[in-house]
Amino acid sequence: MLSLTTAAHLHAQTTAAGTAAPVLPLYAGAIPDSKPSQVQETSVTEGVGVRISNVIQPTLTVYTPARDRANGTSVIICPGGGYARLAIDHEGYDVAKRLADIGITAFVLKYRLPNEHSQPDKSIAPLLDAQQALRMVRQLAPKYNLNPERIGLMGFSAGGHLAATAGTHFARPVGDNPGPVSVRPAFLVLLYPVISFSDSIMQKGSRDNLIGATASPDQVRRYSNELQVTAQTPPTFLVHAEDDKTVPVQNSIVFYQALHRHHVPAEMHLYPKGGHGFGMNNATTKDQWMDRLQNWLDANGWLTK
């Protein structure tokens, strides 16, 4: 196991064109829902890449497509890690490069993980960052030639819970004085997502890390996103393996059923095998879910220039 500094790792990120991927601070001034602490960000290299924990300074790393391919659509990517760490390579940077190949401008969100030592309310810190990322990409739209109505949110595992929360809680943004800028994503892409905090199908680590082991029934309901779906929830693309032992496949299924009940367009791909955390490549099948995603994005007009 090799440790390295986050800064060195971020500087090593390059776009498909070989240029450095810019790293943008998420907040220009004071970071909301933060307090002074001894918490320090750590970065460790493991089998499938870098794991980051104890995020204090949230950022967006930008991957731009070649100019002749750019189509004006953007996607903010939320890596997974059980709300304890971020699998920032294979559920972040690697995916961003692939999206850039099909003309999408991709932003990898290094969001704050719940931490009671550095946050007054740990349950809202990740959502604050996801909503701020949506505002920021809207503001950056002219600079990157983006369509502000074509900003999607993609999340893996607990990052899928964060994306699904942002996709169902946008009508009442969290934080003080959130302002008038919309924080509704145009679409959601959820990979083996944590959706529900209900006892029967929850991923206990994610639930405990975000809202605590003694959370009230109201908080459990609030963050069980299958219960928060409305007709305004964005169109959604879901991928899950049926043998997932970490996040039960029922999480994707109940979210799909809720979308269907509310007449929200959704597409779901369930693989018999693949387990959890496979990123872009489910080794048990020759099928590539990224190809299915490209078809879905194309069919909805999000790859049209």
TrEMBL record:
It comes from the Bacteria. Transmembrane segments: none annotated. One of its GO terms (molecular function) is hydrolase activity. SUPFAM superfamilies: alpha/beta-Hydrolases. Residues 60-259 form the BD-FAE-like domain. Keywords: Hydrolase. The keyword Hydrolase applies. InterPro entries: AB_hydrolase_fold, BD-FAE-like_dom, GDXG_lipolytic_enzyme. PANTHER family: AB HYDROLASE SUPERFAMILY PROTEIN C4A8.06C, PEPTIDASE S9 PROLYL OLIGOPEPTIDASE CATALYTIC DOMAIN-CONTAINING PROTEIN. This is Alpha/beta hydrolase. It comes from Hymenobacter ginsengisoli.
